[in-house]
Amino acid sequence: MSGHNVWTHKGTFLLAAVGSAVGLGNLWRFPYLTGENGGGAFILIYALTIFAVGIPIFIAETMLGRTSRQSPIMGMRHLTKTHKTSRAWESIGWLGAAAAFLILSFYSVIAGWALHYTWLMLTGSLVGADATTISAGFDALLASPGLMTLYHTLFIAFSALIVGLGIHKGIESGLRIMMPALFAILIVVLIYGVINGDVGAAANFLFTFNIADLSLEGWLQAMGQSFFTLSLGMGAIMAYGAYMSSEASLTRTAIAVAFVDTAIAMVAGLAIFSLVFGAGLETDQGPGLMFVTLPLAFADMPFGALVGGVFFILVLGAAISSSISLIEPVAAFLVERFDMTRPQAVTIMVVAAWAMGLLTVVSFNVWAEGTIFHALFERSAFEFIELLTNIFMPLGGLMIALFAGWALTQSEVMKELGTNITWFKTWRLLVRFVGPAAVSFVFLRTIPQVEGYVVPTLGALLIVGVFALSQRLRKSA
Ligand code: TRP
Which residues form a coiled coil (predicted)? Predict the structure, then answer.
């Protein structure tokens, strides 16, 4: 086995996992998807999947990483050998690598927008601006592929530098300050929203559950978002789990991550929608939501340029600690499998994701309509990539749950979980049946409506395949 190092401090994994979980998913994606999907119903499905499916699968994913102590692909290869199961389970690692690459490609472009706003804030360009000016400024950013590519390049290069130099394990001390600071500043924005916006309307929008409001694709987006926000189902948590100290509690860690992550998303959502309702903006304006509403608050609040500048710097920090967890699993694989140096491995991963990211860049301007993606899938390339990741992450999570639930032995799991038999049995019930059933349910319900006939056929085949594999597993176990 390669010389994998272990984070010696018990709390390091927790910090790294929170760093990975908290990011653009909480601040940018959660509010905008909630807005597009009518609010409460979306949040209900999102929260249910986080707690009933996400936490057990989070435990399963860290467990697979910690028992194998290798990168996801090599780790799964190792586990399929030691547990005499089909090699097909290695696809957990491959699917995860594909998802990491797709997510990083658009994640970096959106983080680039935060870079733009950091600049605008610190130079005081938006002080006193009104809603019309701010939206026009955002539209101008979207209209410029050159500027977006520049920011995208800067962000991805900086993330690559951190992982390439191997110093990401050292950014814990930074995270220890940044995460609470981010939370504090969100509270400041929320207070501003309570005073100057309409927090009642926001709470009403977010917490009135009317399940009939949710479109079928909304179900898929809600489930996808719950995996996305926890960094789940694609190997990032497995890769970090491989470095996790054997003493740390899997269950407590998973609950803590889910709790912090959800709290940040909720505060961000409340703050943003208070401003949206207060200023009479559209809830369903899409990916620009955070970038149009928050600057509006900073434009008007005392010391807004400074507060806004610090806020966007913290957003960038949160995005970087997430993007390095997207690079790490693939880079670790390339290092282990092909004996590359770290910088080489990171360069390959990042250059490919950078090139793919150009598709997201042009999705907001020159390729905003009339492309092959619109003809085939009725959406832009960016939206198509998001759809793919919404499928890949839960699918990966489903396979992780099945493997951890059926292939690992009771004594292995007991050793990893380190708890009593009751929680072991509950957890195993959750990963054997509840998680897989919930994910399959959402897939079966939504995918046929989303993409005509191609995707349901593929989806059914995949589910049957996974089921067949789990049967084989049982025989050989
Ligand atoms: N969870 C991060 C966010 O909310 C995004 C992210 C980082 C991610 N690593 C991941 C998503 C791995 C899926 C898988 O911003």
Answer: none
Binding site membership of 58 for ligand 1 (Cβ less than 6 Å): no
Cα of 368 to ligand 1 centre, how many Å?
25
Phi and psi based region of residue 130 (left: phi greater than 0; alpha: psi -120 to 50; beta: remaining): beta
pLDDT in tens, 164-198: 888 777 777 888 899 999 999 999 999 999 999 99
Cβ neighbourhood burial of 252 (10 Å; 0-12, 13-18, 19+): exposed
- For ligand 1, whether the C-beta of 234 sits within 6 Å is yes
Atom 8 of ligand 1, residue of closest alpha carbon? 231
> What is the 278 CA–ligand 1 centroid distance (Å)?
30
What does the chain come to in residues? 477
Q: Say yes or no: CB of residue 75 within 6 Å of ligand 1.
A: no
Q: So what's the pLDDT on residue 152?
A: 98
In whole angstroms, what is the distance from residue 193 CA to residue 396 CA? 38
Atom of ligand 1 nearest to the CA of 325: 9
CA 249 to each of CA 10, 256, 257: distance values in angstroms, whole numbers, following the listed order: 9, 11, 12
Residue nearest to atom 10 of ligand 1 (CA): 231
- Residue 280, sorted as left (phi over 0), alpha (psi -120 to 50) or beta, turns out to be left
Q: Is the dihedral of CA 137, 139, 145, 151 positive or negative?
A: positive
Going by C-alpha positions, the residue among 116, 102, 161, 185 that lies closest to residue 381 is 102
Please state, as a whole number, how many other Cβ atoms lie within 10 Å of the Cβ of residue 137.
Answer: 19
* DSSP-assigned letter for residue 208: -
Is the pTM here over 0.85, yes or no?
A: yes
